[in-house]
Specification:
5-stranded mixed sheet, about 40% helix, about 15% strand, globular, 29 strands
Length: about 1000
C-alpha cells in the first residue's frame, strides 16, 4: 500500500508517494494560487492514474495552509516542523541545523543539543514571496535574478522585513542607477540577514547545516550568501523541495482511505460562508452607471500629434514604480502623455518619451521642463531639465487646476500615500505614509498577482461583490493570512477584491491621516494617483468619507501634470531640455564605488552621461558632489559629536573596563568615563557604529522586533570582545536624571534593561563578563554608597567611601558641565538663526539618534537644505514642563513634548520640528500622537521619520523637502 504525503504550503502544493520501505516512487511540485482544494484534487487524481492498482492508500497532510482541509475531511495532519524533522532524521542523520525557506514561511530547526524550532510569524519578509515581489519589481525572471546576483560588485542595504518595505529601499536605488546585478545580490543578502538575525534568536548556527525549501533549492546565489554570512558550507540535499511532504508520508498513520471515496469527498467539499463582511460597493448596475457618469465629466481631450508650431512645457514624474510624463500647451491642456512601469530604470523610458514627443510634434518649442518624484534628481541631471520640484507641491499644483478651492488632496501611488490639507490657498498640513507602503497600489497589485489575475481584471471583479470581506487596515504581509482564512471560509475572488479595495481606503484614512472625524477631510476633495483609477477604491473612499470627490481624468498623471504646469508658469525663452539631435548621442553609464570622504563610507552609484555630466546617488552628505564639505549651516548634532569625541579610550593603573557606545551612552559617556578614570580604571570604547559592526553581532540578536539602536549593541559587545576586553560595564538604570520636566523620569525599558539581554549574548566559555548592576544615578546622595558596594564585589579592590564619593562628585560635575555646554550651544545656534532669519529644524529623538549609523546623515541633509539644526536636549533651559494628554513619566519623552511646545511658543515663525522614530519602538506609538497634537494645536506641521538599518534616504528626503516647501509656501516662498 502506498503512502502519500501532501505539503499544502502558503503558495505551493507538493506531494510525495512512498512504498512500504520508504522509497520515493513519485513527487510533484506546483503553485496552487490559493485554489487549494482544486489543486489537491488534480494532484491526487494524477497519482491515482499513475498507480491504478492502489485502490486504498495511507495519507497525511502537512503545511501551513493544509490544517483546515485535513480537519474537515478527517485526514491525519502533521505539523510541518515535525514532518521536516522526521524527513531530516530519515534522509540526513547527524544534521545539526536545518534552514528552510518557503513561499511565505521561514524556519530554522536546531536538531542537535537542545532541539528547538524558530519560525516566522504572520510576516512573510525574507521568504519566497518576498523574492517573487523583488523579481517583479526588477522586471526579471527569478532565474535571471539568480544569474545576475552572481556577477555583483557591491552590496546595498535593503530591508527584507517584508516586500512593501523593501520596495521603498530598492526603488530609489534603481532610480539612482544601481545595477540589477548589485540589487539582486543585495536582496539575497537581505534575506540571509533577515533569517539569521530574525529567527536564530541568539543561538549559534554551526555544524552540519542543510538548506531546504524552494528559494534555497532554486537560487544558488542565495545559498552562497547564506554560506558567507554563516562562515560555513551548507548542503542542499536531493529532494530538498519535498522534505515536508516526505515527512508527512512517513507520519501517515494506519488509517486508510479509498482513493475514489477520498476524491469524491474533496469534490463535494466547500468551506462555510462565515466571515465578517462589509456593505457592497454598489447595490445595482444603475448605481454604478451613475457613479461612472459623474466621474467621466472630468475627462480631458488629449491631442496626440501636430505638425504645426507649438509651445510646450514638459513634466516628468519618475515615481516609485511608474514613470509618468506629459507635455502641455500654453492653454494648460495635456497634448501628449505616457504612463509606464519604470522597470527599475527610468532613464531609457524618459529618453523614449522625449523621442516620441519630438516625433509627434516636430515643430514644438519647449519653453520649460520640470521633474519630480523619486527619480527627480537623476532625470533632471540626465536630460538637462530646468527645474526639480518636490512631488507634494507638484500634486497640489495639478489639483488646483481642477478645483481652485480644493481643501484636501489625497494621492495613492504605487508605494506612497500623500495627503495635503489646504487652508487659505497654502498647504497647511502634510500626511505621508512611513517606509511601509502597505495600502498603496503595490498592495493591490501584489494580491492580484498572487491570486493569478491582472490588476485591471481583479479590480473589476470587486465592483459588484455581494459580501466584501472585512479585512480591516492591516499590513500587506499580515493581510495574507486574513485573505487565506477568508478563502477557507468561502469568500469568492469578487468579495476578496472588493475587501482589499476597502482595506486600502481604511489604511489611508485611519493609519496615515488618522482621521477621527469625517469633517477633517474637507469639502473640496481631489483624489489622484494611479490607485484611484480603480473604481472599487474610489467608490470605497467616497462611501467611507460620506461625500463625493473629484477624480481628474489625469489622476495617474497628476505629478507630471503639476510639474509641467510649474514649468509653464516659470517659462523660459527656450528650455535646456535635451532636443532630438542631443538624444541621438545620449549615453548613460553606471559605476559603483565606495566614498572615502568620511567614516560613513557610503556606497555610491555614479551615473555618467554622454555630455560628461554626472549624477551620484547613495551619498549621505554632499562631499561626493561638491568635492569637499560645503558651508553647511550650524548643527547641534555636530556640536554634540565633538563634545563626545573628547572622551576616548585610555589606559589606567587598574583593570580596563569596556563601555558600549550605544543607547544611553551617547548621553552618559561623560559621567561614566569620568567616574571610572578617576578611580584608576582604564577605559576602552567599543568604537563607532557601522554596518560591519552590526552584521558581526547579528547572530546573537534574540528579538528581531527590537529597535535598531538596541540591535547595534550586540555588535558593540562583539567589538569589545574582539579587542580582548574582559570587563564590560553596562548598568541597568530604571531611572534617568530628574530634569523636572515630567511627572517621573524613567528610562524606556530597552534602555533600562537591555544589559540583561546582552548578558546572554556572551559566547559560551568566554572569559569576559558583562557587569550590569542595578544603579540609581538619579539619587546623587546615596549613589556612591551603592556604586562602591558594586565595585568591591566585582573587583578585588577595597575602594574607600571617600575616593568613590570624590570620583562620583567629579562625574556629576562633568555631566552637568556637558549638559550646560549643550544648552549654551543650543541658545547660540537659535540666536544665530533668528538674527539671520534662517529656518530652524528641531530634530527630536533620543540621545542615540546622534549615532551616524542610526540617523544615516539626516542631520546633514537638513543643514544642506538651508536650515539650522537644533536637538531636543539643546533646548533644556528654554523649555518648561508641558501639560499633556498622556502620562508624562519618561525623561526622553518629556524632552520631545517640551521641544514641541517650544516650537509653538518661542515666537519665531521659521521653526519646525521633525521627530526621529526607530522601528520597533513601542513607546513612540504614544509620543508621535502627542507631539503631533501639540504642534497642530498651534497650526504647525508635524513630520515624522522612521529609521532603522536601511540607509537609502530617498523617501526621507521627499518628506523633509515637503516640509520645507509647505513651510515656505505658508510664508510666501518658492517651492523648488
Amino acid at each position: 500500500m502506498i503512502r502519500i504525503g501532501l505539503d499544502v504550503g502558503s503558495t505551493t502544493l507538493k506531494s510525495v508517494v512512498l512504498d512500504e520501505s520508504g522509497a520515493i516512487l513519485y513527487q510533484q511540485y506546483e503553485r496552487h494560487y490559493s485554489q487549494i482544494t482544486l489543486k489537491v484534487i488534480e494532484m491526487l487524481s494524477g497519482i491515482q492514474r499513475m498507480f491504478p492498482d492502489q485502490a486504498t492508500i495511507r495519507l497525511c497532510i502537512s503545511g501551513s495552509a493544509g490544517m483546515g482541509l485535513a480537519q474537515d475531511l478527517g485526514i491525519p495532519f502533521a505539523q510541518e516542523v515535525y514532518a521536516t524533522r522526521e524527513a531530516v532524521n530519515a534522509l540526513l542523520p547527524g544534521t545539526d541545523v536545518g534552514i528552510e525557506l518557503g513561499g511565505e514561511d521561514a524556519k530554522i530547526l536546531f536538531l542537535s543539543g537542545a532541539m528547538d524550532v524558530c519560525m516566522n510569524g504572520s510576516c512573510a519578509g525574507g521568504t519566497g514571496a518576498f523574492i517573487d515581489q523583488m523579481a517583479t519589481l526588477l522586471d526579471i525572471s527569478q532565474d535571471e535574478m539568480n544569474a545576475l546576483a552572481t556577477n555583483h560588485k557591491k552590496i546595498y542595504s535593503i530591508a527584507s522585513r517584508c516586500g512593501v518595505f523593501a520596495k521603498s529601499d530598492v526603488q530609489p536605488l534603481l532610480n539612482q542607477g544601481a545595477t540589477k546585478e548589485d540589487v539582486s545580490a543585495s536582496i539575497f543578502t537581505a534575506v540571509a540577514n533577515q533569517t539569521i538575525a530574525g529567527l536564530a534568536h541568539g543561538r549559534q548556527i554551526e555544524g552540519r547545516v542543510v538548506y531546504l525549501g524552494g528559494p534555497l533549492t532554486f537560487f544558488s546565489a542565495l545559498r552562497a550568501t547564506f554560506d558567507d554570512a554563516l562562515r560555513l558550507k551548507g548542503t542542499c540535499p536531493k529532494h530538498s523541495l519535498y522534505f515536508v511532504a516526505y515527512g508527512a508520508a512517513l507520519l501517515s498513520q494506519d488509517k486508510t482511505f479509498s482513493f475514489d471515496a477520498l476524491l469524491g469527498a474533496l469534490a463535494s467539499y466547500t468551506a462555510s460562508d462565515q466571515y465578517a463582511a462589509c456593505a457592497p460597493l454598489f447595490e445595482s448596475e444603475a448605481e454604478y452607471e451613475a457613479f461612472a457618469a459623474r466621474h467621466s465629466k472630468q475627462d480631458q481631450q488629449i491631442t496626440t500629434s501636430s505638425a504645426k508650431p507649438v509651445e510646450l512645457a514638459v513634466g516628468i514624474d519618475a515615481g516609485s514604480t511608474t514613470l509618468k510624463a506629459v507635455a502641455i500647451d500654453t492653454r494648460r491642456h495635456v497634448v501628449f502623455s505616457r504612463y509606464m512601469p519604470n522597470a527599475g530604470n527610468p532613464v531609457p523610458l524618459v529618453k523614449s518619451f522625449l523621442e516620441q514627443l519630438y516625433a509627434a510634434f516636430p515643430q514644438a518649442k519647449i519653453v520649460g521642463s520640470a521633474t519630480t518624484g523619486y527619480g527627480e534628481e537623476i532625470i533632471k541631471n540626465a536630460f538637462h531639465a530646468d527645474y526639480g520640484l518636490v512631488e507634494t507641491i507638484a500634486h497640489y499644483t495639478a489639483a488646483r487646476q481642477y478645483d481652485p478651492d480644493v481643501d484636501f488632496i489625497i494621492d495613492i501611488g504605487g508605494q506612497d500615500i500623500k495627503c495635503f490639507q489646504i487652508r487659505n490657498g497654502a498647504i497647511d498640513n502634510i500626511f505621508l505614509n512611513e517606509a511601509c507602503s502597505s495600502g498603496c497600489g503595490s498592495f493591490l497589485q501584489t494580491f492580484a498577482g498572487a491570486l493569478g489575475y491582472s490588476i485591471e481584471d481583479f479590480s473589476r471583479r470587486g465592483l459588484f461583490a455581494n459580501r466584501p470581506v472585512d479585512l480591516g487596515s492591516r499590513c500587506t504581509v499580515f493581510m495574507n493570512s486574513s485573505v487565506k482564512q477568508a478563502q477557507k471560509d468561502g469568500a469568492t475572488i469578487e468579495n476578496i477584491a472588493a475587501g482589499l479595495s476597502i482595506s486600502v481606503v481604511k489604511n489611508a484614512l485611519y493609519k496615515v491621516i488618522r482621521m477621527k472625524d469625517k469633517e477633517e477631510i474637507g469639502r473640496h476633495v481631489i483624489v489622484q494617483g494611479g490607485t484611484f483609477l480603480n473604481d472599487s477604491v474610489l467608490r470605497a473612499f467616497e462611501k467611507e468619507i460620506g461625500r463625493d470627490v473629484i477624480r481628474p481624468a489625469l489622476s495617474g498623471l497628476m505629478g507630471a501634470y503639476g510639474a509641467a504646469l510649474y514649468a509653464l508658469d516659470h517659462r523660459l525663452e527656450r528650455s535646456g531640455l535635451l532636443d532630438g539631435p542631443a538624444l541621438q548621442n545620449f549615453r548613460h553609464q553606471v559605476m559603483a564605488t565606495t566614498c572615502k570622504g568620511c567614516t560613513n563610507h557610503c556606497r555610491l552609484t555614479i551615473n555618467t552621461f554622454s555630455d560628461g555630466r554626472r549624477f551620484i546617488g547613495g551619498n549621505q552628505c554632499d562631499k561626493p558632489t561638491r568635492g569637499q564639505s560645503g558651508a553647511a549651516l550650524p548643527s547641534m548634532f555636530e556640536v554634540k559629536k565633538k563634545l563626545l569625541d573628547a572622551y576616548s579610550s585610555q589606559p589606567g593603573r587598574l583593570e580596563t573596563i569596556g563601555l558600549l557606545m550605544g543607547l544611553n551612552e551617547y548621553e552618559l559617556l561623560p559621567f561614566w568615563h569620568t567616574l571610572l578614570t578617576e578611580l584608576g580604571f582604564g577605559v576602552e570604547l567599543s568604537g563607532k557604529s557601522n554596518k560591519k559592526l552590526y552584521h558581526a553581532g547579528q547572530n546573537t540578536i534574540s528579538s528581531d522586533t527590537v529597535c535598531y539602536p538596541a540591535k547595534l549593541m550586540h555588535g558593540h559587545l562583539k567589538a569589545l570582545l574582539d579587542k580582548g576586553v574582559e570587563h564590560i560595564f553596562y548598568p541597568c538604570l530604571s531611572y534617568n536624571m530628574d530634569e523636572q520636566k515630567a511627572d517621573n523620569h524613567y528610562n524606556c525599558p530597552v534602555v533600562a534593561y537591555y544589559p540583561e539581554v546582552l548578558r546572554n549574548a556572551l559566547p559560551a566559555g568566554s572569559r569576559a563578563r558583562l557587569l550590569h548592576p542595578y544603579l540609581g544615578i538619579h539619587r546623587r546622595k546615596d549613589f556612591p554608597k551603592h556604586f562602591r558596594a558594586f565595585l568591591n564585589e566585582a573587583f578585588d579592590h577595597d575602594f574607600s567611601k571617600k575616593e568613590v564619593a570624590e570620583a562620583a562628585e567629579k562625574a556629576y560635575a562633568r555631566y552637568e558641565a556637558h549638559l550646560e555646554t549643550i544648552h549654551n550651544e543650543g541658545d547660540r545656534l537659535y540666536q544665530y538663526a533668528v538674527e539671520r532669519n534662517l529656518p530652524i529644524i528641531v530634530l527630536c529623538g533620543r540621545p542615540y539618534h546622534l549615532d551616524e549609523e542610526v540617523n544615516h546623515g539626516i542631520d546633514k541633509f537638513v543643514t544642506q537644505e538651508g536650515a539650522v539644526l537644533l536637538s531636543e536636549d539643546s533646548l533644556g533651559h528654554m523649555v518648561k514642563k508641558v501639560d499633556t494628554d498622556v502620562l508624562n513619566q519618561w525623561t526622553y519623552h518629556a524632552r520631545l513634548y517640551s521641544a514641541a511646545d517650544f516650537v509653538n511658543t518661542c515666537g519665531y515663525d521659521k521653526i519646525d520640528l521633525v521627530q526621529l522614530v526607530s522601528f520597533g519602538c513601542g513607546l513612540d506609538a504614544i509620543t508621535t500622537d502627542e507631539v503631533r497634537a501639540i504642534l497642530e494645536s498651534n497650526g504647525k506641521i508635524y513630520t515624522q521619520i522612521k529609521i532603522d538599518e536601511i540607509t537609502n534616504l530617498g523617501a526621507v528626503k521627499i518628506r523633509l523637502r515637503s516640509l520645507f516647501a509647505a513651510a515656505k509656501e505658508k510664508r510666501g516662498g518658492t517651492h523648488v
